[in-house]
Every structure is written in C-alpha cells, then in structure tokens.
Amino acid sequence: MNRIWLRGFCVVVFLVSGLAGTQVLYGQVRNAEVVAFYNLENLFDTIDTPDVNDFEFTPEGPKKWNSEKYSAKLGQMALVLAQLGIGYNEDGPSVIGLCEMENRQVLVDLVNTDVLKNRGYQIIHYDSPDERGIDVALLYQADKFQPENTVSAPLVIRDEKGEQILTRDQLVVSGRLNGEKMHFIVNHWPSRYGGEESSRPFRKEAALLTRALVDSIMATERKAKIVVMGDLNDDPDNESVLKYLKALPDRSNLEKGALFNATGPLFEKGQGTLIYRGVWNLFDQMIISQSLLKPKKGQYYFDSAQIFKEEFLLQQKGKYKGYTWRTYVGNSYHGGFSDHLPAYMVLKKK
C-alpha cells in the first residue's frame, strides 16, 4: 500500500510541475475553445447513502474507501481535467461533460480542488435513477459559457420481463459560448454488463432518445450547433451509433440531418479510450451537427478531436503495461485515475 501511495504522490508532483510549465510554454493561447468529456470511473464520496447501492465505496465496504483515497481521487481527476487542451487554450476546457459521479457534492469538491478552483467552473447536475447512484453532469467556465436552458431527459427502458432498468438520464444544456448559441447533450448509455449482444437493445433505446433530442432542437433551430458527447458503451461502428443516432465518421458524405462523429476517424486509425483484453474500444465519443463543419466568419467551427492518452494515465510495467491505470481492479486498490481516457474537441473561429 505504501508503494502505491508513493507512486500516486510522485505523479501528482510531476503533473503539478508539468502543468505550470506547459502554461508558461504556451503563453496566452486564446484562439480556440475546448470541449471535453471524461468518465471519472466511480467518483463516490465515503458516505453510505440510503436507497443507493454505494456500500462498496464506504470505509466498511469491500473496497475500504476512505477520505484519504477520496481526496487522492479528486486530485487526480482534477489534474487530468486541468490539462485537457491547454495547447489550444491555457484556461483548459470551457465546457466538460462528465459521467460516473455519485452526486453534486463530489463535483463541488472536484471544482474546488487546488488545481481547478481558479478556473471558475460551475456545475449542472441532476440525480439520475441509476441503481448505483451514478449520474452525468456538465461543468462550464461561467465567463465563457452562459447556460439558458437545461433538461434531464429520462431514458425509460425495460428488460425482457417488462421491468424497468434504472439507468442514467441524458443531460441537455443550451446556452451561449462567448455569445454564440450552442447545445450540449451529455450521455452515459447502458453498459455491456451481461454481454454485448444481450444488452444491445438498451443502447439502441439510448441512441433513439439522443436522436430525438437532436431532432427536437433542430426542429426549432434548423442550423443548430449541437455537441453530443459521452460514454456510449459502443464503438463508432456499432449500429446504435451509425444506424439509430445517425452519427457517421465520414464528414465528406453526410446525408441531411446526419451527425458527424468527430472521434470516428480516430477509431478507424486504431485509437481508443479504454482497453479490454488487449483491444482498444472508443466508447467516449464527440459527435457534432453539420453546422459546426461549415466555417462562417466570426462563428465557431470544428477544428479537431483528440484522445488524451498521456503516459501517466497508463500502467508502466507488468502484464498490463499500456493499459489504463485504474483506481481499483476489483477490490484491489491501485491508486490510478480511470479505466477510460478523456476525449476532447477544439472549436475555432474563422
């Protein structure tokens, strides 16, 4: 255990030093805005909340989750978020979609960490009915993005017995990014627990809901600039994304109403955000409406999408060298970050 804590401490020191150095290196970089998404992998507090299946993340639970580990987790998540896209904007992402946090309070603790507290992040969060109590949320820098409307859209799905599966709502936030109207939809689609094939219908329903939300926005704002982001638990080439969400990886051949999967070309090149049995999946996706592909003077347009795959987020030795460095593997504490890598996209103005 002491070796694990020492490694985590060294990483924190290294990252704080590196972060400061990077800001000096890039200087006043303000010609772009960064939009990011990160699966925080079980950011739970240490309290056993009634009617929420969170006992494993308590001091008495099998993971022996305590204040020291919680504090370390917050610090590591904050360090990652602080570095996303600072080569394009030294202030970091103006908007961040998140999933796998237990409640609003853990987000309050996150934005008040030493690394993030001067970034001015505000929180949009609703409690979802997920049986483990995990939610989706949006962080935004209030001096750049001003929300005008927020909706938590419930995903109602049932199993083969007709019983409702408790899962995450989908968060829709509309507002103005430096004065320009933008819409963000944050997702965490149902997992592949029980098998990819048997759980496939659940992600189909999630995709249909996301598509309905996109269509609803476009019905009142034909040229709406929409960003769909999240952990979809499917790859860009799965039918939930291609057929039902209508998010395609080829921007040169988009039919009317189709979305562009900005992370799709990365997947085609073999990149991913999580690894399973030696194979990279790209579940954490950034998807945009076609209006963001058409540069107009003084308006934001899509520049690029990237996966944040830094060495400090990966295991450096052993059988699983190159895999994501996780907080836990089973009930064994590893002191890492997340089983997912973050994805982000860059918006520029012509």
Automatic annotation (TrEMBL):
Alphabetical list of Gene3D superfamilies matching this protein: Endonuclease/exonuclease/phosphatase (3.60.10.10)
InterPro entries attached to this UniProt entry: Endo/exonu/phosph_ase_sf, Endo/exonuclease/phosphatase
SUPFAM superfamilies xrefs: DNase I-like (SSF56219)
GO molecular function, one term: catalytic activity
Domain Endonuclease/exonuclease/phosphatase: 35-349
UniProt protein name: Endonuclease/exonuclease/phosphatase domain-containing protein
Organism: Geofilum rubicundum JCM 15548
